[in-house]
TrEMBL record:
This protein's UniProt keywords: Signal
Gene3D superfamilies on file: SH3 Domains
Signal peptide limits: 1-17
Name of the protein in question: Bacterial SH3 domain protein
């Protein structure tokens, strides 16, 4: 009986979670009203405090945990640091067969951003009117559980239809312009089939994605 109990405990413990269960959204718990949860420079209770989270903070994207699953890497404003997972409750996750819930992707050289609220997408780039459309295809790798492919069809005000393909991988990512950390890497292929008046910036763009809800 004890052996069975130990096996069940191992199955539900954080250490038994899939290596691809991150990033994930969390809510602050167990912090008294009026108190705060510290964001620290390292996964250690004695490390420097960089910023704080309020007692009722929610939709916090934990990029990844430390090795013993006691601290989570979190972005607060323009800072990235560690928060004790004792005070964070993971929101209900979709089944492993579901697609990663990205909300925004972005990159530099040139600066670009793509917002996604199922099924609508919006692509913004410098010197180009925003393009809007929909995700028309979702694919998940049959051999690699951390890889996804999204296909989008969009319209631009002056260049007509374009296609946007997103190759997404769950891995550490940097936006190249800040100290913020991300847990989703993306390569975006923009294809313009209009030869008369092109989108002006077709090509392959790389960047990062987040699952955090956009700031209001």
């Amino acid at each position: 009986m004890i052996r069975v109990f130990c096996i069940l405990l191992a199955l539900v413990s954080p250490a038994a979670a899939s290596q691809h269960s991150w990033p994930a959204l969390h809510d602050v718990i167990g912090v008294d009203e009026g108190d705060v949860l510290n964001l620290r420079a390292a996964p250690d209770i004695t490390a420097e405090v960089l910023d704080t989270l309020s007692a009722d903070a929610s939709d916090i994207e934990v990029i990844r945990p430390n090795e013993d699953l006691t601290w989570g890497l979190v972005n607060v404003g323009e800072r990235t640091g560690w928060v004790s997972l004792t005070y964070l409750a993971q929101q209900a996750r979709q089944p492993a067969s579901a697609f990663v819930d990205i909300t925004q992707c972005f990159g530099t050289e040139p600066f670009w951003s793509l917002s996604y609220k199922q099924p609508a997408i919006r692509l913004s780039m410098p010197d180009v009117p925003p393009a809007e459309g929909f995700i028309s295809g979702l694919f998940k790798s049959r051999s690699q559980s951390d890889r996804y492919f999204y296909r989008g069809s969009m319209m631009t005000p002056d260049a007509g239809p374009i296609e946007v393909d997103l190759s997404i991988r769950l891995r550490a990512c940097s936006d190249g312009r800040s100290d913020r950390a991300y847990g989703i890497e993306v390569d975006m292929l923009v294809t313009d089939n209009n030869t008369e008046d092109g989108f002006r910036q077709p090509g392959l763009f790389s960047g990062c994605c987040t699952i955090a809800p956009p700031a209001e």
